[in-house]
Batch of 2 targets.
Target 1
Amino acid sequence: MNKEHIDLLIDRKKEALPDGVIVFGPEDNLAAQVQADWLTTLLCQVYVQHGITKNREKLIADIDAGICKLWFAAKDGKPISSAAVIKQTDGSVEIGRAVSLVKGVGSFLRFLAIADHLATSSGPVVSEVRIADQFAGIPSGEATQTVCFKHLGLIPQALVPAFCHGDPVRQEMFLFSSSEKIRAEEPIILPNDRASLDLVVKTAMAVASEALGNEQIIKTDGGSKQITKWSLVRSDPFCLMIPSDNGSQLETVLGEAYKNAPFTMIPLGTGPGHSSALIECLNLGFIPCGFDRNLGGDGHPVLLLGKLREGTLLAPIKLVSGLFGIRVVAGINNINRQFRSQLLSTIY
C-alpha cells in the first residue's frame, strides 16, 4: 500500500469536492452520539436496512473507545458521506462503514481514513468488499471495488454472501480481502476424493489463489471414519458453526442456525484429520468460499465454508473489469454459480 499514492489521490479528490462540503474527522471530536446518528442516517438512506444500525449503543461505545474512527462529509448541516477504520482483535484494521450520497466524496473519505491508519499503525488493512450489482434501489459496489483493489491493493481471500440489506431484504456477495497474503508454512490437506478436491480447487483455492501464492503446498489424505460434532457459536450478522466435542450432528445444528439467519459459515482447519468433516459439510451442501486471513492454531490455513437457507434472495454480482486475475475471476464465478444453483428464489 503506497502512502504517496494515497496522498496524491487525497489531493485530487479534495480539489474536486462540491462547494459547501465540510469534512469532519476524529480530530474534530464530534460527539459519539452524533456520529452514530449520522452513520445510521446514511446507512438507512442507502440500504434501508443495515446490520450496523441494530445496535446503536455498541456503535457509540466503539466510537468512544477509539475502536471505530469515523470520517464524515456534510453539506447544509446534513451528512452526505462516511468512512471508517475499525480495529480488529487480530491486530488488523478494517476499512468500512463507507456510504456516500454524492459521487466521489466517499472515496475521498476512505483515502483519508487509510492515510490516518498508515500514519499511526503498521497493521494490515482488511475489508469486506461488496461486489453486488445495482438491484432493487441499492447501488452497486463498483466504486468500492475500485478503491479497495485498484488503489489500496487489497488481495481477495474469500467470496461470501455474508450480509443482508434493503427492502426486499437480500443477501449480497462480499469479497473478504486483506493487504497481506496468507503466509502458511503448513500444507492445505484436502480429502482424497475426486469430487470434493475438484470443488475446493475450483472455488476456494481459485478465489484465494493470489492470497495463498504459488508456493502453497496441497496434500491429500483419506480422512477418518470419526463423526464430527458441531456447535453454533454465533448467530448475528450470520451464523457461525465450529467442530465441538460437546456438540450435535451437523444437520441438527444447521437447522438451529437457519432459525437465526439466512447464511451460515463454517471455518474448518485444513490440518490432518479434517477431511472427513469437510466431506460431511460438502455432502450437506456447504460451498467452499475461500480461506480465512488468519491461520489455524496448528499453522494450517482455515477453509471457509458457507450455506444459504433455501429460498433466500441473493442479489446479482458485478465485477469491475481489469481488477482481478483470471483465476480469481473464475473462482468468483464458480462460487457465485454454486450458491445460486441451490436457491429456489434467486435473482440473476
Target 2
Amino acid sequence: MGCIMRGMRNSSIKNELASIGIGAMIVFIAMVLVAGIAASVIIQTSVKLESQSMSTGQGTLSEVSTGVAVYGVEAYAASGSDISKLAILVRPRAGTEEIDLSNCLLELSNTDKKVILNYTTSYYAEPDGQDDIFSVNVFPDDNYAYGNASNRDGTRFGLLVLNDADNSVSATHPVINRGDKVYICINATGCFNGIAERSDIWGMVIPEEGSPGAFEFRTPSTYADTVMELMWDL
C-alpha cells in the first residue's frame, strides 16, 4: 500500500512539474512574440522617421540653396510723363539648379497700393540683340507704344531673355539656371497709373521653391532722362 501511495505522489509531482514547464514555455513564447511585435514596430517607426528626416533635409537644403536674385531695375518715362515701364533684371542664386519663372509671383507696392503679378506667355522675347529693350513687345498690353497703352495690364509680367546658353528659357517653360539672365517686364502704368518722382517702391520675386529676390528703390526727384537706372547690385 505504501508503495502505491509513493507512486501516486511521484506521479502527481511529475504532472505538476510538467504543467509548470508548459506554463513557463507559454509565457516565454508570449514574451518572444511581444518582443518581436515591438521590434517590428520600432523598425517601422525608425524607417519612417529616417524617410521623413531625409525628405525634410532635402526640402531644407532646397529652400536654402535655391532662390532668385534681383540685381537691376531700369525704367522708362516718356518726356514730361511718369514712369510707365519697369524692367527688373533677375538671375538664379549661386547653387540654384532650376527655377521656372512661370510659377513665380511678383509683388510690387508703393505707399498706396500693392499688386501681385504672374507671367503670361503672350509677352516673351528671346535674346537677339536689342537696340531698345523698352520698344520690345514684352510689356503686357502696351500696344508696342511708349507709355500710351489703351489696354493697360497691371496683373501680368512679360520676359525678355538676355542670357540663356542652354536654351532652357522658353515662352511656355521659362526655366532659368546657372548663367541665365532675364528681364521681368512690367507695365507700371497698369500697376500704379504710372510712377511719379520721389516714389518709394518695394518688390519681391517669389519662386515656387527657395528664397525670394527682394528689391527697393526711390525714383529720382526729376526725370531728366527717358531711360533711367533705378537700382543696380552686382
